[in-house]
Structures are given as C-alpha cells and as structure tokens.
Amino acid sequence: MESYDVIVIGSGPGGYVAAIRAAQLGNKTALIEKYNALGGTCLNVGCIPSKALLDSSEHYHQSQHQFAEHGIRATGWKLDFKQMIKRKAGVVEQTTAGLDFLMKKNNITVCHGLGSFKDSHTITITPAKGKASEISGKNIIIATGSKPASLPFIQIDKKRVITSTEALSLPALPKSLVVVGGGVIGLELGSVYARLGTEVHVVEYQNAIIPTMDRAMGKELMRSMKKLGVKFHLQHGVKEVKASAKSVVVKANDQKGAEVIWKADYCLVSVGRKAYTEGLNLSAAGLGADDGGRIPVDHQMRTSVPHIFAIGDVVRGAMLAHKAEEEGVVAAEVIAGQQPHIDYNLIPNVVYTWPEVAGVGQTEEELKASGTPYKSGSFPFKASARARASMDTDGSVKVLAHAETDEILGVHMCGPRAADMIAEAVVAMEFRASAEDISRMSHAHPTFTEAIKEAALAATSDRALHI
Ligand code: FAD
Ligand code: NAD
Questions:
Q1: Pocket test for ligand 1, best of 45, 95, 100, 144 (most atoms within 8 A of CB)
Q2: Is residue 270 within 6 Å of ligand 2 at its C-beta?
Q3: Boundary (domain end) residue, out of 320, 344, 368
Q4: In this structure, are 105 and 13 located in the same domain?
Q5: How do residues 104-120 score in pLDDT, each as one tens digit?
Q6: Does the pTM of the predicted model rise above 0.90?
Q7: Do 266 and 281 belong to one domain?
Q8: Are 348 and 429 in contact (CB under 8 A)?
C-alpha cells in the first residue's frame, strides 16, 4: 500500500489548494476526487459556470437595453442560448484542465474514486469502474464540500424542480422561473434568466433579500433587479411545489396567510446548501458530524482526531470558495508545524449580480445589535463621474467606522465592480486603517474606487467632496 504524508479527500477550492500548499511544503501528497473532473462545486457547477453565464447574459441585456443609449444601433441581435451554455461548458473545461496541470506541476498524485475511511490512517478508494485500492496517510484533510439543501416537502426531480446545478445547463431558455430563496444563488441565477427575458419570481421567507448581508445593500439590489423585471415576494412561506411533465406549480402563504400560486416552466430551489459527508465512513476514523452535518474543527482546522483535518463547506462558517482556500492553506501549514491564522471577520462576501454587492466586516445591523458605537458614511454612484460615463449609477458605498477611534469596522457596497473593489476594504481593515486613512489616500480619477474614498470621508467627518 502506497503511503503519503498528506491525503486530501475532495478536489474543490479547499482540497486542491490544501494539496498544493502541502506539496509546496515538501510533503508527499495525494488528492482523491470521486468525479472525473477536479475542481469541486466551485469550478464545475458553482462559481465559474455561474459567472460565465452572468457575463454572457449581461452582454445580451446591454445589447438590448443600453447600446442604443451609447449610440450603437444594430438590428438582428439574436439570443443563441445553446451557444451560451456551450461557452460556459468550455470555460469550465479549460479551468478544470488547468487544475490537472497544477497537480502535475506540484507532483501531487491524483486518485479518482470515492474516498472512505477504513481506519483513521487508511483510505479506501472506490472508482466508478474497476477495483478498489487503499492508500495510507500520516495526515488526512477532509474537503468533501456541500450539496444543495431542500425543504422537507419539496421533491427535487432535477427536471422541473431544480437546483443550481440544473439551472446552469438548461436545454432551452425558460419562459418563466420561480426561485425559492432570495439568497446568493437565487439572485445570481435569477438575474441570468431575467436578463435573457424569462419571467422571474423570487419567493423569500424573510423580509429582505440576501438577509445576512448589510440590509441597505439588499434594498439597493432589489431596486435594481426590479428594473430588470424580477418580481419579489418577501415574507412568503412556500408550502408546496408540484411538478408535472412540462411545468411546475408553487404555492406559498403571504404575510397575511393568504395563498399565492405561481405556475412556471421551472422552480429553482435555492434555500442553502448542506455539508456533504456521505460515503466517507467517518465513524471508522473515530469522527462524527454535528447536528447540521458538519465536521467539528478547532481554529487550526483540526478535528477531534489530531492527524485529521477538515476544511471548506464541510465545516462551520460561510460556504465560500475563498474561505475554503484559506482553510486549505491553514491545514497544510499546521501539518508543517506552522502557526497560521484566519480572521473570519475579513472574509468578503460578494453577490455577482449587476450591480454587484460586496461586503466585509460587520454589517450595520450587527454593530447595532452589539451596541458598538459607530458612525456611517455613504456615497451614491449617481454622484460618481465614472459611473455616469459607463451608465452604472445604481447603488452606493457605505463605510462604517468606530465612533471614537475611527477604525473601519465594515464596508458594504452595491454597485459596478463591487466584487473587485471590496479588496481595498479588506486590505484597509487587515491593516486596521481608520476611515480617515482611506480618505487621505489618492484614488485614481475617474474610477469607481473614488466612491470608497468619498464614503470614508463622509464617515470620518461628514466631509464628502463630491456630494
Ligand atoms: P467543493 O467545491 O464542494 O468540493 C468538494 C469535492 O469533494 C467535490 O468535487 C466532491 O465530488 C468531492 N467529494 C465529496 N466526497 C468525496 C469522497 N468521499 N471521495 C472523493 N471525493 C469526494 N463561492 C464563492 O466564493 N464565490 C462564488 O462566486 C460562488 N458561486 C457559487 C455558485 C453556485 C451556483 C454554487 C452552488 C456555489 C457557489 N459558491 C461560490 C460556493 C463555492 O462553490 C463553495 O463554497 C466551494 O466550492 C466550497 O469548496 P470545498 O472545497 O469546500 O468543496
Ligand atoms: P443562501 O443561504 O444564500 O440563501 C438562501 C435563502 O433562502 C435565504 O435568503 C433564506 O432566507 C431563504 N429561505 C430559506 N428557507 C426558505 C423558504 N422556506 N421559503 C423561501 N425562502 C427561504 O443559500 P443559497 O443561495 O442556496 O446559496 C448556498 C450557498 O452557496 C451560500 O452559503 C453561498 O455562500 C454559496 N454561494 C456563494 C456565492 C457567491 O459567493 N457569490 C454564489 C452562490 C452560492
């Protein structure tokens, strides 16, 4: 039996990054993946394909609704939905092939098959075809990720009642779509289809969309998505989803208890994801999962068995690719005897709609709840010359700073390129900048980032310059 210093189970952004870092640190490393393609949810059916479709659909939307205003008149624009899906598949293929190269470059042994514990050091690998084999590891990192969650009364048939996975590969453009859950997946994929002309209804249980992010940003995004034609039904409790051969009927109760019914081509269920440990045979390693199905770990990603680590969606915390990556690095470095650290408060959250939403640190609601004295400064993109130039004037930036020390406690934005701009806030907060620090730094003109400087000026002493 071949033995390794580090065995990683699962090749998503948590697992493959952990494997690379472990190999960089001189460990003989193996990576086990049950599917043929490496990359996990993120590369195959998550971050990358969704962003490919978000970009394609935004181009189409602009061609229909904005180009004429820019002075570009063309006739005969035609949506080729099959080509859009094909291009997305190509992007995924290129990206996962890139991972095969990275594994070779780092001398990582890739084993395809289901990994399960025989005992705490031995992993049985069962491929889709052929004989099972075993390998042993001094250290093991579990990175088996997550799967879509559902509601007890919803039967996901993957034909009419679908998850994000099917929504990324529909055979034809739907005329109508009901989205259950106004979180990240619902809004990103709802945007894709609304831009292409599908009638989209978002049904959300709470009184806000993206309810865990700063509430002001959810309101801004909802205003923009309503302009796209998306219909929002907040505080609606879905109670029944019934599929037939060609359509689906969704029933919910509104705030007053009255029944509301929608009929649509598809129902996308996006009410969260759950940790995935099926087939791992955790008990053979002396491990178990908590009530939410996650594997308990300490701040170093160590499970209750000292040489076994777990990272990413299968453990507590936000289900984000970059969070999984950071944890992969931590696990590999702890195995190498280092003392790495993650500041979870500084993991940014992004929604890749247009405008995009991004946030880092504490939300205004969290600051209020904890009684932290804070001041807030906002700047709307309407007042940004750069935003006017590109016709991207929806949204704003909000900087939250400590009332006494001026230290930045949170930055939240809804606007053009917020996904990229949030990095400035992460750097600032990592170095514990004050709002005044940001407001005194030169921001190139004209850029969207000037809105951050202006919001910081507004927060530090109510002296924004351009509003
Ligand atoms: P995963 O990526 O889920 O990978 C786990 C891997 O383990 C899988 O390949 C699985 O096949 C394999 N596996 C499981 N069990 C076994 C076993 N027993 N043996 C062998 N292999 C096994 N996050 C972002 O940060 N940004 C985004 O833009 C974003 N967009 C998303 C869009 C969608 C539609 C979805 C669904 C998710 C999105 N996410 C996004 C979330 C992101 O995909 C996850 O947080 C991330 O993939 C988690 O990484 P992971 O390594 O923990 O697990
Ligand atoms: P989510 O947790 O973001 O949103 C789920 C939404 O469903 C919430 O708003 C919740 O209030 C609502 N909901 C729950 N029960 C409901 C009910 N009975 N009726 C109506 N609404 C209900 O989950 P998601 O959108 O499924 O995404 C899953 C995970 O994938 C998230 O944790 C997210 O971090 C990750 N993801 C991230 C990105 C990104 O980073 N851009 C993109 C997609 C997915």
A1: 144
A2: yes
A3: 344
A4: yes
A5: 999 999 999 999 999 99
A6: yes
A7: no
A8: no
